[in-house]
Amino acid sequence: MPGVVIVGAQWGDEGKGKVTDLLAENADAIVRFQGGNNAGHTIVRGGEEFKFHLIPSGILYSDKACVIGNGVVLDPRILLGEIDGLRRRGVDMSNLRISANAHLIMPYHVLLDSAGETKLGKLSIGTTRRGIGPCYADKALRLGIRVQDLLDPKILRTKIRAALEPKQQALRELTVQHRKLRKEAGEENDKGAAEQAIGEAADPRLDLHTMTEEHVNYGHRLEPHIADTARLCWDKLDNGKTVIFEGAQATLLDLDHGTYPFVTSSNPIAGAACVGAGIGPADIDEVWGIAKAYATRVGAGPFPTELDDEVGERMVEAGHEFGTTTGRKRRCGWMDLVALRYAVRLNRMTYLSITKLDVLSGIDPLRVAVRYRSKEGAVLDEFPYHQSILHSAEPEYEDLPGFDADITGCRDEADLPPQAREYLRYISDFVGVPIRLVGVGPDRDQVVWLGEQPSLRAA
Ligand code: IMP
Predict the structure, then answer these.
(1) How does strand 103-104 pair with strand 243-246?
(2) How far apart are CA 245 and CA 276, in angstroms?
(3) Spatial CB neighbours of 96, under 8 Å, sequence gap ≥ 6
(4) Residue 41 annotated to the active site
(5) Residue 451: which residues within 8 A CB-CB, separation 6 or more?
(6) Residue 109 annotated as catalytic
(7) Mutate to test the pocket of ligand 1, among 11, 132, 249 (most ligand atoms within 8 A of CB)
């Protein structure tokens, strides 16, 4: 099975890193195809915890190519920090390859992300403020700086100069607008945010010379890893080797198909693996969707099954639902099968993995949303495409029996309580995709494989 895509099926943080880590055991390369350091995944190996933001999970295997594809936006300062941190812990980095065509998150992107969110106030998206949106915007505007530009100081300086000028202007304008808004709101004394924005427009990191020097240095350090990564993928795939394409974020945060504008600025769905890694649709043989046994979301935006009660709090506590990247508390709610079925079709999933089933232990009944009802009373069996309808849609639930047992020690399907098996069966039947892997705890070995052996089952 040469080409395997792994995607998030909900709003992110489904535990893709752990599944990728497990499936990667039998793969030859692991490739990230979109997003940036807005992502964060934690892998627990032998009691040791590894947190990644940019580097694909596969880096813990010394014999596999670990690739940052052209569709990723990367902040070189963060990437080098991650490389240094992993090296200090004895991880071999020689197999890391970075696409020469990937775009760089520059200091002004981070500042603009932050200033833009501040300006939106109550309407803010709740971005990770890592510069993701402004960087992808520059890519589309053809004002982006790419990894390959780091290797030519003259070109680098010219491109930074061209990109920088409109940013300084934009930051200044945002500052003025922000001040005006504050004034209109009668908050003249609250100058904190405005002062911060002014500081950002004059940030020393926005100096052309300083920025160029800094990035030339990054280039020297990253040079051994820079490569034609699409070709690397073709070489593997054409020789029958297995390549895993690892998505960041998730389907409902997709720029085109998610809950726009409360989405990320890239396409985390399976189809984007082709563009973000440089392969063709026919190179993809399997698509694994990863979903939590319940639902979570960070940041703003519609979330029909959100729980604002003690069950939701219990999920936060038991599931340690705090973001790896920003530390924000995640919003929690019931499993939404209307949204999951939408994700299954969008990604044309082959298999599902349900993670964190152990978190539901002790909750009875277990509710799953099977349809929505619009505020006019219409029954909605499918995920509505219209933003206003989704915002006010009320979920209708099916109640399934819960289980009390601690399932963190289960390793076989037969070990799981019948109610847990019924819960999984219900999900699988509803969305029409087999569940192959179930997470029952944070450790790598805390999983239960279901049904026939998938090609990538770890030994
Ligand atoms: P951005 O990607 O930083 O622009 O943020 C846009 C939206 O995507 C916000 O709601 C973020 O909270 C969300 N988001 C971005 N990355 C992740 C992730 O890795 N997990 C969950 N949510 C994310």
Answers:
(1) unpaired
(2) 9
(3) 55, 59, 66, 67, 68, 83, 225
(4) yes
(5) 434, 435, 436
(6) no
(7) 249
List all residues 6 or more positions away from 29 whose beta carbon is below 8 Å from its beta carbon: 58, 64, 65, 66, 67, 232, 233, 236, 241, 242, 243, 244
CA of 340 to the centre of ligand 1 (A): 18
Give CA separation, 151 vs 158, 212, 219, in Å.
13, 11, 6
The first and second tokens of residue 441, run together, are 């705890």
Rg of the chain, C-alpha, whole Å: 22
- Which of 21, 28, 41, 336 is an active site residue? 41
Which residues does 316 contact at the CB level (< 8 Å), separation at least 6? 322, 329, 330, 332
Please state the atom number of ligand 1 nearest to the C-alpha of residue 39: 19
Place of tokens 């944070």: 442
User: Of ligand 1's atoms, which has the minimum distance to the CA of residue 248?
Assistant: 19
Q: What is the value of pTM for the model shown? A: 0.92
Name the residue of 127, 260, 332 to mutate for ligand 1: max ligand atoms within 8 A of Cβ. 127
- Can you tell me which residue has the tokens 């936060």? 316
**Residue labelled with tokens 């240095």:** 217
Tens digit of pLDDT at every position of the chain (459 positions): 699 999 999 999 999 988 999 999 999 999 999 999 999 887 777 778 888 899 998 888 989 999 999 999 999 999 999 999 999 999 999 999 999 999 999 999 999 999 999 888 889 999 999 999 999 999 999 999 999 999 999 999 999 999 998 888 887 777 676 677 667 666 554 456 555 655 665 677 789 999 999 999 999 999 999 999 999 999 999 999 999 999 999 999 999 999 999 999 999 999 999 999 999 999 999 999 999 999 999 999 999 999 999 999 999 999 999 987 788 899 999 999 999 999 999 999 999 999 999 999 999 999 999 999 999 999 999 999 999 999 999 999 999 999 999 999 999 999 999 999 999 999 999 999 999 999 999 888 999 999 865 555 444
Q: Whose CA is nearest to atom 5 of ligand 1?
A: 127
Pocket of ligand 1 (CB under 6 A): 12-13, 38-40, 125-128, 130, 132-133, 248-249, 253, 262, 264-265, 298-299
